[in-house]
Design brief:
Blueprint (H helix, E strand, L loop, with lengths): L1 E3 L2 E3 L7 H7 L7 E5 L2 E3 L14 E6 L5
Parallel strand pairs: 1-5
Antiparallel strand pairs: 1-2, 3-4, 3-5
Protein name: Thiamine biosynthesis protein ThiS
Organism: Lentilactobacillus kefiri DSM 20587 = JCM 5818
Pfam family, one: ThiS
Length: 65
């Protein structure tokens, strides 16, 4: 089980950040991912795997005008 934006989620353990975001239809180009207090660089999304008890924060940027 992992925590995503304060909510517990199952099924994410073992996925890369890219796979996880794609399954959520998240805007990969406009998102910041923090895992256990550390920001994951976009270049590492394909290599970093989610582990049991990870705490993820997903922050999307939205433009307006």
């Amino acid at each position: 089980m992992v925590t995503v934006n304060g909510q517990q989620e199952s099924g994410a353990v073992g996925q890369t950040i890219t796979d996880f975001l794609n399954k959520r239809d998240a805007p990969i180009d406009n998102i910041v991912v923090e895992r256990n207090g550390d920001i994951i660089h976009r270049a590492d999304f394909d290599h970093v795997k989610i582990s049991e008890n990870d705490k993820l924060e997903l922050i999307s940027f939205v433009g307006g005008g």
